[in-house]
Design a protein that fits this description.
About 40% of the residues lie in helices and about 15% in strands. With about 230 residues, it is of the alpha/beta class. It is globular and about 40 Å long.
């Protein structure tokens, strides 16, 4: 799994008509590689996860000419018990990077992890993660209280360390402009993950297309340099 553009959604985005329409427009663009369903909070249940994942699968199947992968970002205990979920992958938080993760969830699923340090990135890579979601890059409404940002410098540190090999790095957190996209890609990111930059855009179809194009354009010189 090497996603250029990941779109993060929450169950509430499937309930409100405007948010549902925005999501449908975004995936119709064929610019989104992964839709990550984020189910957070101590009150979340396996039923909540199953209902949200099923509703999102229906939306993706109905609107996407090129269906993105559906990845579930939920407490590991919920994902581990959801054998019947029709999903393509799962995503764990940094604090869940302990024990034998591969033994807890279906072996047919790819998985990734949120990381906020070089050490966490190394642990996730050693555990077999297919991608690392690295944050937080810039100020974001998703985490309004977080003022100490890891920033693009963390991407550079992970790449310089070399302990993660070529596991894809996905930058996340407040990314919305071409300048920010170029900055994280040049720091070592292989792709970006966004929320509001697409779902709250005037035209989510165009926003997703533009973000993907900007990411691919930033990746081109980086790829050429690596071949030299």
């Amino acid at each position: 799994m090497r996603p250029v553009l990941t779109l993060i959604v929450q169950p509430r985005d499937l309930l409100a008509a405007a948010a549902r329409t925005a999501l449908a427009r975004a995936v119709a663009s064929s610019a989104v590689d992964v839709v990550q369903l984020r189910l957070a909070g101590p009150q979340a249940t396996a039923i909540d996860l199953a209902v949200a994942a099923a509703a999102l699968r229906v939306l993706l199947d109905a609107n996407a000419a090129r269906r993105p992968a559906l990845v579930v970002n939920a407490p590991l205990a919920l994902v581990a018990g959801a054998a019947a979920l029709e999903v393509d992958g799962w995503h764990v938080k940094e604090r869940e990077l302990a024990g034998d993760l591969a033994a807890l969830v279906r072996s047919d699923l790819q998985w990734g992890a949120s990381v906020h340090s070089v050490d966490a990135a190394q642990r996730a890579a050693r555990a077999g993660a297919n991608y690392l979601q690295v944050g937080t890059m810039f100020l974001t409404k998703s985490h309004p209280d977080k003022t100490q940002l890891e920033g693009p410098q963390l991407l550079q540190k992970i790449r310089a360390d070399g302990g993660c090999g070529r596991v894809p790095l996905v930058a996340v957190g407040g990314i919305s402009t071409r300048t920010q996209i170029a900055e994280v890609v040049h720091a070592g990111a292989d792709g970006v993950a966004v929320i509001r930059a697409v779902l709250e855009a005037a035209d989510p179809f165009e926003a997703a297309t533009a973000i993907r194009r900007a990411t691919q354009e930033a990746l081109l010189p980086t790829a050429m340099q690596k071949r030299r």
